[in-house]
Design goal:
By secondary structure, the protein is α+β, with helices and mostly antiparallel strands. The chain contains nine helices and nine strands.
Length: 311
């Protein structure tokens, strides 16, 4: 890997440069992140796909991060893209390394001050001026429906057959899709472990593979019920959103977007089973593609059943 990467980076820079340090720094399921220090002192992160996991691509993530950066969003500067897999066996891109005081990506604890700044930064991301230009064909009326169809297509392409509960889930989400007056940048996986901070404030959001233009409610409820669930209770998150960003989450909002996020997760997780059988035979791929997929399907179905049964 070192020789091939060194040669490729030199070609992108149009000069001869050597790698002084190369080490893996994160063990995410969709991407492998490698720290690279070059002999001229520059430091980068090489973000490598792991078998097309989660139905996302390095190319899409690279271009979205570049566009978000140009709009002033807190994101690492992206440098070069290798979309073919010819160099390292998988597509990858290179971005600048961002210094921070973040602890391990599995540590979901946050100080009260940092939690407030996270909510403020996420709200600012959603309200980024010019975000609509990143997806000119998306409107408030079509944004959520487009995401439902996106994840439905991911599941169907990764599955040998039909999963009836996912079909029902897609229909339920389309029928009950809440109206929204505005759309913005949705991170898609926000919360502890997916941002870099300096000890008190967010320096940059990371892991942009799920990002898109859509209804920001997707992010708020994802933070409450998934990535931030081990950080504080849902009621505490909801109160923080209201106090810091003026965001009010109703019970209907919480139910709908929890169903959406479990549907999205169940669809995305099926790609891990496909990856395990082909390009990435790691045990975690098999677990995510079977047990975790089934857990998400069950939670989605339970939420729908409880909600409709109470009506």
């Amino acid at each position: 890997m070192r020789t091939e990467l060194e040669r490729w980076i030199s070609e992108q820079r149009s000069d001869d440069v050597a790698i002084a340090e190369l080490r893996r720094i994160a063990t995410g399921n969709s991407r492998a992140n490698w720290f690279v220090a070059l002999t001229d002192g520059s430091r980068h992160v090489v973000r490598v796909e792991q078998g097309g996991v989660f139905g996302t691509s390095s190319e899409d993530e690279f271009h979205f991060m570049r566009a978000a950066g140009e709009l002033g969003c807190p994101v690492a500067t992206v440098r070069w893209l290798e979309p073919t897999g010819a160099v390292l066996g998988h597509p990858f891109f290179v971005m600048d390394y961002v210094d921070g005081a973040s602890s391990g990506r599995d540590d979901r604890s946050l100080s009260p001050e940092l939690a407030q700044h996270l909510v403020s930064r996420l709200d600012a991301l959603h309200r980024t001026t010019g975000a609509a230009a990143l997806a000119p064909d998306v409107t408030p009326e079509t944004a959520t429906h487009a995401q439902i169809d996106r994840w439905h297509a991911v599941y169907r392409s990764a599955s040998d057959g039909v999963v009836p509960l996912l079909e029902e889930g897609a229909t339920w989400l389309h029928v009950r899709c809440p109206p929204t007056d505005w759309i913005g940048i949705v991170h898609g996986d926000p919360g502890p472990g997916n941002f870099i901070h300096d000890g008190s404030d967010v320096v940059a959001f990371t892991d942009w593979e799920f990002s898109h233009v859509g209804d920001p409610m997707e992010d708020w409820v994802y933070l409450v019920s998934m990535r931030g669930a081990r950080t504080m209770a849902p009621a505490e998150w909801v109160a923080l959103f209201r106090d810091v960003a003026g965001i009010d989450l109703s019970e209907d909002d919480l139910v709908y977007w929890r169903v959406f996020n479990y549907f999205k997760g169940a669809c995305a997780n099926l790609t891990c089973r496909q990856a395990f059988a082909t390009a990435n035979p790691a045990p975690n791929m098999a677990i995510i593609g079977t047990a975790l997929h089934q857990t998400f399907v069950r939670e989605m179905a339970r939420l729908i059943g409880d909600h409709d049964g109470a009506k």
